[in-house]
Design goal:
Layout: E1 7-11, E2 20-24, E3 29-35, H1 39-45, E4 53-59, E5 69-75, H2 78-87, E6 96-102, H3 109-126, E7 130-131, H4 144-163, H5 191-200, E8 204-207, E9 213-219, E10 222-225, E11 230-232, H6 243-259, E12 262-263, E13 272-275, E14 279-281, H7 284-292, H8 298-301, E15 303-304, H9 311-322, H10 329-333
Parallel strand pairs: 5-7
Antiparallel strand pairs: 1-2, 2-3, 3-6, 4-5, 4-6, 8-9, 8-15, 9-10, 10-14, 11-13, 12-13
Helix pairs in contact: 3-4
């Protein structure tokens, strides 16, 4: 269940693009985010940077603006590692630093190694960032109670980083399961309940005569194509799908084939591949282009499953239903609009 919570963001130098200190109420962790250029000042002014912690080096990906390049590290003294990275030509990519430490100094070497391995694994599986790590982190055996504590700590990190604009750890929202009726709870699986869930988060499908087929849903501002979709093989993309116009999509498709998000499958034609895990997109159109390997208007090609209504028509209906004022003249007369 999603819980409301309070976050505190402190602009330490008064600039929204400068050093930001972020905390969650009743959490022992603290997050510092700052541009690479501020590293000398932060080293001089913030004691947190000398603590034990995990950190991220984040930079833009010239081949895909939707997939940043990320390096995950850990250290007993983070400052020393950051100074080393700043001098390293192999780390020239990063322009932002994110540091996570504990306010009560209870993070041990075992804790941060556990967090590093888990963070690397999450980013690798999410397929929303390009990892710059040479290794994938070493699994660490911790006592059961420590594992529970670190999983909670990890959950808080995954909550706070998207607020700061770093979404590579963000969990994909799951469509609510339509409940089935059970003895003593027949109403949970009633047709009215199932219909309400289906209408709130409908499934959209994209079908092409070539054998391409995908299902998706929209939730929390993301358009998520579900695992199992049959997509166009990168080598068979349309000639008109030019790198000049759609380079970021083409790069994403090729990278997905390379990392196993898209795989050939026995029984599928050579020009088709299978999507192995859910994948999030910023819009229905970018999702449609990824699936089809050609320029596609997602508002037209995605259809509500069961009704055939286009995504565009469904979206327009949602906007019209939520409009509190039907015309500007009502604004003056309405008490609440």
């Amino acid at each position: 269940m999603i819980q409301s919570r309070t976050l505190k963001l402190y602009l330490a130098d008064g600039h929204p693009a400068g050093l930001i200190v972020a905390e969650i109420l009743n959490w022992t962790g603290k997050v510092l985010s700052f541009p690479r250029g501020l590293l000398p000042q932060v080293l001089k002014s913030r004691q947190e940077i000398g603590k034990t912690g995990v950190y991220f080096l984040v930079g833009s990906n010239p081949d895909n603006p939707f997939q940043p390049i990320v390096y995950v590290g850990e250290s007993d003294v983070v400052a020393q590692r950051l100074i080393s990275h700043d001098k390293d030509d192999n780390k020239a990519f990063f322009d932002q630093v994110v540091l996570v430490v504990s306010k009560d100094d209870n993070l041990t070497k075992g804790h941060i190694r556990y967090l590093e391995a888990r963070l690397i694994d999450i980013i690798r599986k999410q397929d929303v960032a390009q990892l710059n790590n040479g290794n994938m982190g070493q699994p660490v055996n911790l006592p059961e109670s420590d594992v529970a504590d670190m999983e909670y700590f990890l959950h808080q990190i995954r909550t706070i980083l998207p607020v700061l604009g770093f979404t590579f750890l963000q969990e994909l929202p799951k469509r609510p399961a339509i409940p089935l009726s059970t003895p003593g709870n027949e109403e949970a699986g009633s047709s009215q309940t199932r219909l309400a869930i289906a209408e709130e988060v409908p499934i959209f499908e994209l079908t092409m005569n070539s054998g391409i087929y995908a299902e998706a849903y929209e939730l929390e501002g993301q358009f998520i194509v579900q695992a199992g979709a049959v997509c166009r093989h990168p080598s068979k993309m349309a000639n008109s799908f030019s790198v000049e116009r759609f380079g970021y999509v083409i790069s994403d498709i090729n990278q997905s084939l390379k990392n196993g998000t898209l795989v050939p499958e026995e029984g599928l034609p050579d020009d088709l591949v299978r999507l192995t895990r859910d994948k999030a997109f910023k819009s229905p159109s970018s999702a449609a282009m990824f699936v089809c390997g050609s320029s596609k208007n997602g508002r037209t090609y995605w259809k509500a499953k069961g009704t055939g209504q286009s995504y565009g028509d469904w979206r327009d209906a949602q906007l019209n239903e939520s409009a509190l004022c039907k015309n500007p003249s009502e604004l003056l007369a309405a008490t609440v609009c």
